[in-house]
Amino acid sequence: MALTPTPEEKDTSRRVSDYFEQIRHDPLLLTVFFSAMPKGGDLHHHFSGSVYGETYWQILSDSNGWINTATAEVDTPGTEHLAPWKRFGELPRNARFDSLKQAFLRMASVKDYEESLRPSDEHFFATFTKMSFIASFGMAHGLRELKERAVSEHVQYIETQVGQLDTAIRLPENTGWEKILTAASLKDSLAVFEILDKARATLLERGVSGAVDNFLHRLERLHYQANVDDSTFMLRYHLAASRSDAPLDVYRRLLLAFEAVDRGSLVVGVNLLKPEDGEVSMRDYRLHMLMFAQLSRLYPGVPYSLHAGELAMGMVRPEQLRTHITDAVMTAGARRIGHGVSVAYETACNALLDTMARRKIPVEINLSSNEFILKIKDEQHPVLLYHARQVPVVISTDDAGVLRTDLTRQYVLLAARYPSLRYADIKQMIRNSIQYSFIRPAAVKNQQQQRLDAALARFEEQVLRTHRLIKK
Ligand SMILES: [Zn+2]
């Protein structure tokens, strides 16, 4: 924990705060300010969406991958294709090459996005399907990009969601479990837990632990070979399940993820992926929450953050905006909430906010992402509601590559849009990003907190020196 600030430190912070108020309506000066400000961690983003399209292009070019010269679709070098596909090496570097690259960047991100051609949520989520195979193929390259960007914008820690782990091990067919699960999920939690206990015992008997060990072994080798961690930077992973899959597929993936975190590995958290308003996601939402409840009894030390309330009025029926965040907190026991945008529509909104404040369950706020996907920004966004009700807030990117943004930009938007947030509030949000991270053991988290506090103190001194605000 931080030491109580000395009177000099308090005075320094106050002067920086005064300067901050002077520049807060100037987006360029805010950019200079937040670029240099140590920002702790980025706790919410997806690996394949955080790598920029230019990097994917480079990975394909370096490995002599494939490109469809008519559509700008791409493929890794291992497969064979016919015309109009060409190897990167066969393409002359001319204007046609440049325009293919631009078409590819538009496909990989929001670059030059044209709303009339495709809904923004569809465009956003489609990038994951299109890019994730290049992300796994060139993972070391992607990790280096994330690290370089983090270090250059004074981010010391990242928790990145790398998607789902799978194994060939399956549950027996014709058990009827899936049917019972779907039917029981809304009224009989005990019946759900009973089936899930059986499913887990069967998967463990059939050897899923070995699959987890193999995956972790590969991940560790890659992580250390790519020199991701050093004295300035640390990166950890989340594994997830896709909420659009069939119930027992979701459960299998969650079990693998819980097992991976339980090993004390580089994987420190579990999550759920895919649009929350999808047909299956909506139908099975409560069932998924019960899966987390069951797994958390068996793996009490495994933390998870859940995407919940990444919804807006009009995307679903109003009745479907009433319970997701409450269920993620109360039923599933989420340690953090991703997005939480639709909180004001929750039936138990007040009780929920009180619980989040009391249990210190932070909300991961993603301003650019919510603006692009949900069309929610400014006073429609609940960041101030959470803050006013003393729910810890963390600021994250979700996702820098797709949205062509960075963490600095998220703080600039926060400061510019919400003038009632003072410098001290924003500094606290930055400190929250380490405090509520899933870094372990506690001693390592402590070191990271001390590093951040020391870096913030140096930053404040630097601001005062640069702007000659030191009292002499
Ligand atoms: Zn997300």
UniProtKB/TrEMBL annotation:
Its EC number is 3.5.4.4. It comes from the Bacteria. Residues 263-450 form the Adenosine deaminase domain. It is an enzyme of class 3 (hydrolase). One of its GO terms (molecular function) is metal ion binding. The keyword Metal-binding applies. Coiled coil: none annotated. GO terms for biological process: adenosine catabolic process; hypoxanthine salvage; inosine biosynthetic process. Pfam families: A_deaminase (PF00962). Its cofactor is Zn(2+). One of its GO terms (cellular component) is cytosol. Keywords: Hydrolase, Metal-binding, Zinc. Belongs to the metallo-dependent hydrolases superfamily. Adenosine and AMP deaminases family. This is adenosine deaminase. It comes from Chitinophaga varians.
